[in-house]
Amino acid sequence: MRNNTSIKIRKPKTTGRPSLGEKKKSKPHMVRFDEEQDERLIFRAELAGMTVTEYIREATLNAKISPRLSPDEKEYIRQILKIGVNFNQLLKLAHTVGLVSMAPKIESIIGQLSRLLNKIKF
User: Fold this and answer.
1) What residue numbers bound the domain in which 80 lies?
2) Alpha helices in 22-98 (DSSP H)
3) 60 and 77 in one domain?
4) Structural domains of the chain, count
5) Cα separation of 54 and 31, whole Å?
6) pLDDT of the residue at 49
7) pLDDT higher than threshold 60 for residue 72
8) Is the C-alpha dihedral spanning 43, 47, 51, 55 positive or negative?
9) Which member of 20, 56, 93, 100 lies 3.0 to 4.6 Å from 24 by CB, making a disulfide possible if both were Cys?
10) Residues 90 and 106 sit within 8 Å (Cβ to Cβ)
């Protein structure tokens, strides 16, 4: 007597994309673009040879974002701009009355500028 039951052995899948397993992407985020932004996004993704989704993911996770300036840093920059205006006026005066007589004032302004630049995180 023969037994008609046969055992099927599954072969490992060899075609298609590999299983994502634990790395499955399951956290969606909604992002909206206007027409112009969408066209730019698609253009950039095509240039990079990526899908739009891949491009957004790559750009988001690997972008270098510069933080905004703190209120203190903004104030330092305002002071530097003011010193720059004063320094320019002082140099114009130095050209008319002589650079040697203006040297102490110029050194003072350079010292102020140096102290402010040291306070700013660059």
Assistant:
1) 71-119
2) 35-48, 52-62, 71-97
3) no
4) 2
5) 14
6) 93
7) yes
8) negative
9) 20
10) yes
The two three-digit tokens of residue 26, written as one number: 């399951």
**The amino acid at 37:** Q
Residue 121 has pLDDT above 70, yes or no: no
Amino acid identity for residue 92 in this structure: K
Rounded to an integer, what distance in angstroms lies between the CA atom of residue 78 and that of residue 86? 13
Amino acid code (one letter) for 71: P
Q: What is the pLDDT of residues 11-68, one digit of tens each?
A: 666 677 666 666 777 888 888 999 999 999 999 999 999 999 999 999 999 888 777 8
Residue with tokens 């009355």: 97
- Angle at Cα 111 formed by Cα 105 and Cα 116, nearest 5°? 130
Same domain, 89 and 112: yes
